[in-house]
Write a structure and sequence with these properties.
The structure is a single chain. Helices cover 34% and strands 24% of the residues. With 526 residues, it is of the alpha/beta class. The protein has a nine-stranded mixed β-sheet, with helices on both faces. Strands 4-3-5-6-7 form a five-stranded parallel β-sheet, with helices on both faces. A four-stranded antiparallel β-sheet has the order 17-18-20-21. The longest helix has 20 residues. It is globular and about 70 Å long. The C terminus is likely disordered.
């Protein structure tokens, strides 16, 4: 056994440190409290909290009873939270003090009697995240997590099948519509072990391995890896809030080997001046894994230069799990790809009627989960329909090359139709992000003021300290894209509305244009 694996593993976050045996004991006592509250196998419990040690304790504690922990986005409003409370018939809500008003409003909207447990926010967490120090003072309107744990002298005992029951429902991200509950068939012990083993091997997790939780724990992938790391005894460092410089410092200080990030984070890291990045030692990294959002080729090449063979990418969905994997070396021979199907998963490209398409032809990306992945249906909505029997389409578009590598070109809901011609925003985004001094970009369709249906809009965020001129961008794009693909509207913005998992809220960006178009149309009709 290595020295790292023989040490007592810890959880570290915002200046606080807790031995994992202590954290698991606290989780067990919380599990006993959940059972005492009459909540157990198959029941749903919402978690709305910042990244912190207690987030993992609550997740494991709920799961130990067979109840289902449902982490939700901390940016959601009362009506969005109310949807989940109603849809999942939630029994308990665990919320950081900051989010208590949101869940209270949601509970009233949903006419729910879910029990609220307030999670006090440590001053260290608030200082690390730069949040209001007043949030360290609990509201006093609900019982506190610490009180619930303290009231139980003994942790919950082993409950056969509890872990399988706790993984029964997971919600989609909700960036393109209301989040849907994905209700999974109960997994067998063999399935659970196989999934855990496959994830640990591909993600580079093992006892004692220092891992960094850089993404939000409300998002599926960081949450699943963090919980798996805790159960395996990995050394876990949690970032309360994303910051590129803090990321570099933590990797250097803790000799991090494993981390899960998204393309937006990669771009932020590359915005740190090269001479400053060089002062941090990143050589400990063996698995830098990214997913959740498309990674433009120019950004991917820069990431491979920075992280080398440690960089891995996967593509998947909440419904079917991980579908494809690709290494850095594979990507260099198949630039732009997200990899080939792994572990018995499958990808088929078909037209809208389900007819298979040949290599190189763009169509709908139909997927099937790995051999060990459980079957599912949507909570309260039933089984999904599919034009390709036994396979699922979640809205992604793309193609396969002759070697079976998958390339994504965007989502069906984001295709811009201008004058009857399909325009794929991802192609334009890839071209813009490759321009000097561009840190982030979102391209989307907006109502056209004439008779062409839609126009292309691009909101572009410059790297810190850089100046971008619309005229320069338009000239650069005109030499690389067909004229109908060059955005009609170009705006230089300070930031884009992305969630912490890297997905951009294009609906939010379109709202202003849609409202303006409605006013104009109304005036014309008058």
């Amino acid at each position: 056994m290595s020295d790292a694996a023989s040490k007592t593993p810890t959880l570290i976050c915002g200046g606080r440190r807790r031995a994992q045996p202590d954290a698991l004991e606290r989780a067990g006592r919380l599990g006993a409290a959940v059972l005492a509250a009459g909540v157990g196998r198959g029941d749903k419990c919402v978690i709305m909290a910042r990244n912190d040690i207690e987030f993992l304790e609550v997740s494991v504690g709920i799961a130990s009873t067979g109840a289902n922990p449902l982490p939700i986005n901390t940016r959601w409003t009362g009506p969005e939270v109310a949807h989940v409370l109603t849809d999942a018939k939630v029994r308990m809500i665990f919320a950081h003090t900051e989010f208590v008003p949101v869940v209270e409003a949601a509970r009233e909207l949903a006419a729910s009697d879910a029990r609220i447990v307030e999670m006090a926010m440590p001053v260290e967490l608030l200082a690390e995240g730069g949040w209001d120090r007043k949030l360290a003072e609990p509201t006093g309107r609900h019982e506190l997590l610490e009180e619930l744990i303290a009231a139980q002298p003994d942790p919950v005992g082993h409950i056969e099948g509890a872990i399988a029951d706790s993984m029964g429902v997971i919600y989609t991200s909700g960036t393109t519509g209301k989040p849907k509950g994905v209700a999974r068939e109960k997994m067998t012990p063999q399935q659970l072990l196989t999934i855990a083993g496959a994830n640990a091997q591909r993600a580079g997790l093992a006892p004692g391995v220092p891992m960094l939780v850089a993404g939000p724990l409300y998002h599926t992938s960081p949450n699943a890896l963090a919980v798996l790391g805790l159960r395996m005894g990995a050394e876990i460092v949690i970032m309360p809030k994303w910051d590129a410089r803090k990321f570099l410092r933590l990797v250097d200080t803790h000799r991090i080997r494993q981390v899960k990030i998204v393309p937006t984070m990669i771009s932020r890291i590359l915005s740190v001046p090269a001479e400053e990045r060089a002062t941090y030692d990143l050589s400990s990294l063996t698995h830098v894994i990214h997913s959740a959002a498309p990674c433009p080729p120019a950004l991917k090449r820069a990431a491979i230069e920075l992280f080398g063979d440690a960089l891995w990418e996967f593509y998947g969905c909440s419904e079917a799990g991980t579908i494809t994997w690709i290494s850095a070396s594979e990507w260099l021979t198949h630039p732009g790809s997200v990899g080939r199907p792994a572990d018995g998963s499958a990808v088929t490209i078909a037209d809208e009627d389900g007819n298979p398409l040949p290599a190189g032809e763009l169509g709908c990306v139909y997927v099937r989960g790995a051999d060990y992945w459980p079957r599912f249906e949507y909570l309260n909505l039933g089984a999904p329909s599919s034009a390709v029997p036994g396979m699922l389409w979640v809205g992604d578009l793309g193609y396969l090359d002759a070697d079976g590598y998958l390339y994504l070109t965007g989502r069906d809901s984001e295709v811009v139709i201008r004058g009857g011609v399909n325009i794929y925003p991802a192609e334009i985004e890839n071209t813009i992000i490759a321009l000097e001094d561009v840190e982030d970009v979102a391209v989307f369709g907006v109502p056209d003021s004439g008779d062409l249906g839609e126009a292309v809009a691009a909101h572009i965020q410059p790297r810190p300290g850089a100046h971008l001129a619309e005229s320069v961008i338009r000239e650069a794009l005109s030499s690389q894209l067909a004229d109908y693909k060059v955005p009609t509207h170009i705006r230089i913005v300070d930031s884009l509305p992305r969630d912490d998992s890297g997905k951009v809220y294009k609906r939010q960006l379109r709202t202003e244009y849609t409202a303006r178009h409605s006013v104009t149309s109304g005036a014309e009709m008058a």
